[in-house]
Amino acid sequence: MKNLIAVNSNTYHGFSIDETLEGIAAAGFRYLELAAVRGWTEHIMPDLGDEELDRIQKKMSDLGLECVAVSGHCNLTDADRLNDFRDNMKLAHRFGAKYINSSTGEAHFGEDEAFTDDVLIENIKTLLPDLEKYDLILGLEVHGEYGTGESLVNLVKGVNSPRVGINYDTANVVYWGAGSLMDDIKKSVEDVVFVHLKDKVGMDNSWNFPAIGQGELELLAFIDYVEGKGYKAPYSLEIEHNEAFTMRDKVEGDIDFVNKVMKESFDYLREHDLI
Fold this sequence. Notes:
By secondary structure, the chain is an alpha/beta fold. It has helices spanning 17-27, 50-63, 82-94, 117-125, 128-133, 149-159, 172-175, 181-185, 219-228, 243-247, 254-271; strands spanning 5-8, 31-35, 66-71, 99-102, 137-141, 164-169, 192-197, 208-209, 235-237, 241-242. It has an eight-stranded parallel β-barrel with strand order 1-2-3-4-5-6-7-9. Helix 4 packs across helix 6. The radius of gyration is 17 Å and the shape is globular. The termini are close together.
């Protein structure tokens, strides 16, 4: 049985939830990782209100889309933000997700963050009852100060729960960690519970994340390797284009570009019998 392949709605950063759902479905995808990242991509949020959340769920159903994960980034080093993350867990459960992903600090615009393994481990342990309550698995994303899978292994071991593992981002290990994808995954594969499948142009910290299959990463070799090691969880495509496009206000024609990239990614995955 093939691993599920979802799309991270952050691919449609700056676009409405309706444009996002319609574009993903039109490309041929059926599974979603919905972004609930305050101040960044707020496609679903705990404070949206029941009427709007119900409307989004109905639209997903009408389009044949299913949520398998929520991207609910919060600063897990900050005890004051843990209740925000608990709200995101409740939201993930409402949408039927089995996975919730977060970076250790704020995914975007975080300042003055303390990255101490012991603090993170204790904070994450306080989330375990809610992970159990909502039957969720928390994926700690390769991102920021923890820019490689290897750097997250000790954190996961310290929490020591089947509810917590690594959300492995294939491009972030290069962008944030200045590492080698195939070298790093071999040091962390046993703790991987979720994968952000993201391509990259340039083996450096340049922001260039194109359609899947149009970058320089060995994504097919990566998939073969992790599945050979028993990985059975979903992959979630994340395409972040370039910095200028992502950060600017969107204009007419931009949605057509993102939809084209989505379709190209779907076709590439189908060509390689992954979907």
